[in-house]
Amino acid sequence: MCGILAVLGCSDDSQAKRVRVLELSRRLKHRGPDWSGLYQHGDCYLAHQRLAIIDPASGDQPLFNEDKSVVVTVNGEIYNHEELRKKLANHKFRTGSDCDVIAHLYEEYGEDFVDMLDGIFSFVLLDTRDNRFIVARDAIGVTSLYIGWGLDGSVWISSELKGLNDDCEHFESFPPGHLYSSKSGGFRRWYNPPWFSEAIPSVPYDPLVLRRAFENAVTKRLMTDVPFGVLLSGGLDSSLVASITARYLAGTKAAKHWGAQLHYFCVGLEGSPDLKAAREVADYLGTVHHEFHFTVQDGIDAIEDVIYHIETYDVTTIRASTPMFLMSRKIKSLGVKMVISGEGSDEIFGGYLYFHKAPNKDEFHRETCRKIKALHQYDCLRANKATSAWGLEARVPFLDKEFINVAMSIDPEAKMIKNDEGRIEKWVLRRAFDDEEHPYLPKHILYRQKEQFSDGVGYSWIDGLKAHTARHVTDKMMSNASFIFPHNTPTTKEAYYYRMIFERFFPQNSARLTVPGGASVACSTAKAVEWDTAWKYNLDPSGRADLGVHLSAYDAETPLSNKPSKVIDGIPRMMAFPGVAIQS
């Protein structure tokens, strides 16, 4: 992922201001180590740090229209850029970059072109003819983006907090699926899918329709001019991404450039559930498998760097970001610049184990809607920033706009978890790829129980974090937590420890307001905690907090204990459902 920074209407066109913008842009250099650019028009500055994925030779930014009156700095990938170029046949493009279409679409359609883009993106577009500008972020918020305001009337845009937090009076996360226009002086939502209203859909479940939609989502993300790989945890989601990529890679432009031999990457503690499952999937698919190990101490040593790059104090995000951060560094060292990953499936299909307790299909569906809308604060933020910290790009096919429309139109009755009928979590997705004649995956992988990434890398990872933070946060510190941190007051020593580090890097009140809070069990929203009264006594984001569902769950008597959970042979025993092949 690239890094963008823009300062607009700052009433200062001095050399000193230009130097300051350059200085702040360098804080984003890790995101785009391949090239940097800065464009100035009066008191408007557009800076860019480039990670070159498409057209590495000529796609440097900012990008322009024919007469350079429209200027764009953008972070993202536009998967339908070739189709859009055909609609813009009367335009002349300066580069082969997929993002080169943005300035020309603006010329043709004005501010209403954003919904035409199929991809992930954050961009700033400046029309120098009247100094108007627009800013937009992709539908779900796969790319990170922040907006701030200065006392001098300026508007600031940055891919990360660290690009603007020291210079703005107020700043916040730029809302996904929105556009900010200087003409209107405010936001408007450009992304308006049917599911956004949370109305209950009624389209009958068709496994083949769902399968084709996801295959399309994966194959369009094979657009690359650089070496790439697949993140493989051995869970259902990443394994399906890996299988589809392996099945359809041959014949693509990527295969012609780099060959049809796929590289998969996995990270975990020695003996972790994910490592064993990922190894088996890679062997089954016949790919080159790279397995990276880390120790609990390696992870603890990286925590400060992780919080600086991920820019959150949310417990579950930090737990999961740390192994991904460590793995991304290893992947980049092998010369890989792009990876495909499996984020988003659990939100769309109700894959988290707490969905076992959904009281009815209406509540089930509304919770999936709430989870998708919040992804930019959790898994999207993690996937984007943990990889970008090392100049690596992550693509997430489950969050494809068209695929989400198909998946979220299914009658949620089909998604409901019904143990007595053999329907475990994400049954509709598993069934869609359960092909006896041309199997995508081994049965026991296809029906492997959900493991949250922070659990699957090794259960002792979370246990080790709790033990470490308990040694550094005293009971006395916790007793004063509500006075020290009145907003999103940490309720555990682990949360308090992360909060201290975050506040050291980002001390502004605006910064702490960018991080979500509220009660959660096993990654639920606060609303879903109401599904089970027992959960209010066991508010932990790990999947093992879902007592009675996860078979390696915390001890019911001491749910927040630092003692390691019981694991048999290093592998969690799967729940047995009639008629479903399981891991033994």
TrEMBL record:
GO terms for biological process: asparagine biosynthetic process; response to stress. PROSITE patterns: GATASE_TYPE_2. It holds the Pfam family GATase_7. Pathway: Amino-acid biosynthesis; L-asparagine biosynthesis; L-asparagine from L-aspartate (L-Gln route): step 1/1. The record marks E343 as: Important for beta-aspartyl-AMP intermediate formation. The active site is at C2 (for gatase activity). This is Asparagine synthetase [glutamine-hydrolyzing].
